[in-house]
Write a structure and sequence with these properties.
Blueprint: E1 16-18, E2 29-34, H1 44-57, E3 66-71, H2 74-86, E4 89-95, H3 100-108, E5 112-116, H4 128-138, E6 142-144, H5 151-168, E7 175-179, H6 184-196, E8 201-207, H7 212-218, E9 250-254, H8 256-270, H9 276-287, E10 297-302, H10 316-321, H11 332-335, E11 347-348, H12 353-363, E12 367-372, E13 375-381, H13 382-391, E14 410-412, H14 417-423, E15 430-436, E16 439-444, H15 445-452
Parallel strand pairs: 2-10, 3-4, 3-6, 4-5, 7-8, 7-10, 8-9, 11-12, 14-15
Antiparallel strand pairs: 1-2, 12-13, 15-16
């Protein structure tokens, strides 16, 4: 009989799958190293098991111990599977930008999960790096994995992923392309492949908001390169020891929008239901097309499974709210479809200026139409109120009609965006859209900018 002794024995030996539609413009053969076939549905199962086994061998991880790691979700899953089989407790520390599905999956396999803010410096005590380190100090018989600097991360891919790719391509691989986060995959696979053939090119996929590309090209760690981004699993605001820049031939950066759009396209055009970093990887590969020739064999590694992103990249509302869906926007009604159900906030002519200010504050808006029993008769915005208060602080106790300006122009739902945009100027901060049945909605500068993005 042919069977595995436990789920950990099924890690590795994932297939290579030919890319077809998305890579049709390329002259070369493109093969996807399809890592979702691992039991935890990601490439991270490989290094998670390697790190655990090496820690056991070194006596760092002891029976009954607790494994602690800061993770974007996938390494946590791999470690959690190892913990279940080997009898350890598992604590995952994750950032709040990761999908809800990742948190739920980690809990489903018995992990305790701490969620930390993303938009803080790595050395901030609230960061997931710092929180994981603190917990490891506080909890007896615990082991902080530190996948970023743990050499077993790279070792796993040098000993398994790299040899598999070489064997599966019969040594014909010419390029290896992969998203870079902790650096273990690109460094381990890249090192092995270059040992077999020094001419193999190794390309890293980076994201905007990450330091890798500029550091590789200039040797400068530029903190101005660091800012929040949406793409999950790749890019860093630190330089992990596992990133071996010497074996990387270059980086290309992919935008959050392109990564998300191509994640959807992989599913709809290739039947590959994959995670966010796969979208970034295939878009990055297409950006590198001038580097490929007809006889090349390009292997791109896809990290994880689409089930972890159902509420994000595979949710059209989530995509639309971030301007990632290229919906056709030509008419006034198109500009407000994402919030058409929100009621119009207005103020009456006899209400006090203080009422208008309070309403703007509560609803986080910058302008309000003014109405009386006959309809719209004026408007106010934050600039008007600011000037009025600077001239006379007691104006807050006066009726709004004493400071209001002309009413906002009214357009119908089929008015072109160009005409709507021309109505807005330094004196007119918004336009009202007539929805019919006596209902109106406001169109602001922000709506126009978002619609045209």
């Amino acid at each position: 009989m042919n069977y595995a002794e436990n789920i950990l024995e099924t890690i590795g030996n994932t297939p290579l799958v030919k890319m077809n539609k998305l890579t049709s413009e390329l002259p070369c053969l493109v093969l996807a190293k399809y890592e979702t076939f691992n039991p935890g549905n990601s490439v991270k199962d490989r290094m998670a098991l390697q790190m655990v086994e090496d820690a056991e061998a070194d006596g760092i991880l002891k029976p009954g111990g607790t494994i602690i790691e800061g993770t974007s979700g996938n390494t946590g899953m791999g470690l959690a599977l190892a913990a279940v089989v080997k009898g350890y407790k598992m604590i995952c520390v994750i950032s709040d930008k990761q999908s809800k599905e990742k948190v739920d999956i980690l809990k489903a396999v018995g992990s305790e999960v701490y969620v930390c803010p993303t938009d803080v410096a790595p050395d901030d005590p609230r960061s997931y790096y710092s929180t994981a380190k603190r917990l490891a100090k506080e909890i007896p018989n615990s082991w902080y994995v530190n996948q970023y600097d743990n050499p077993s991360n790279t070792k796993a891919h040098y000993e398994s992923t790299g040899p598999e790719i070489w064997r599966q391509t019969e040594g014909k691989v010419t390029h290896f392309v992969v998203g870079v986060g902790t650096g273990g995959t690109i460094s381990g696979v890249g090192s092995y492949l270059k040992e077999q053939n020094p001419n193999v090119k190794v390309w890293g996929i980076d994201t905007y908001g990450s330091v890798f590309k500029k550091y590789h090209e200039t040797g400068i760690f530029d903190e101005n390169e660091i800012y929040p981004y949406i793409t999950e699993g790749i890019g860093e605001d630190i330089l992990p020891k596992n990133v071996n820049f010497d074996i990387i031939d270059g980086f290309t950066k992919v935008t959050d929008k392109d990564a998300a759009v191509y994640t959807q396209r992989l599913a709809k055009e290739e039947g590959m239901f994959l995670g966010n970093s796969a979208g970034a990887a295939i878009k990055g590969l297409l950006q590198l097309k001038e580097h490929f020739k007809a006889d090349d064999v390009v292997v791109v590694l896809f990290h994880d499974h689409g089930s972890r992103y159902v509420g994000k990249m595979f949710n059209d509302e989530w995509m639309r709210n971030r301007g990632f869906l290229d919906d056709k926007v030509t008419k006034a009604i198109d500009l407000i479809k994402n919030h058409i159900d929100e009621p119009l906030v207005t103020v009456k002519t006899e209400e006090l200026v203080s009422h208008a200010i309070e309403r703007m504050k509560n609803h986080k808006i910058s302008q309000i139409p003014v109405e009386d029993i006959n309809g719209f008769v004026g408007s106010v915005d934050e600039a008007i109120l600011f000037r009025a208060i600077m001239e006379d602080t007691s104006v807050t106790n006066k009726p709004i009609k004493e400071v209001m300006q002309k009413p906002f122009p009214i357009v119908d739902r089929n008015t072109s965006i160009d005409k709507v945009a021309k109505l807005i100027n330094k004196d007119v901060q918004a336009v009202l859209l007539d929805l019919g049945d006596g209902n109106h909605h406001i169109i602001t500068k922000y709506d126009i900018i978002s619609g045209l993005h």
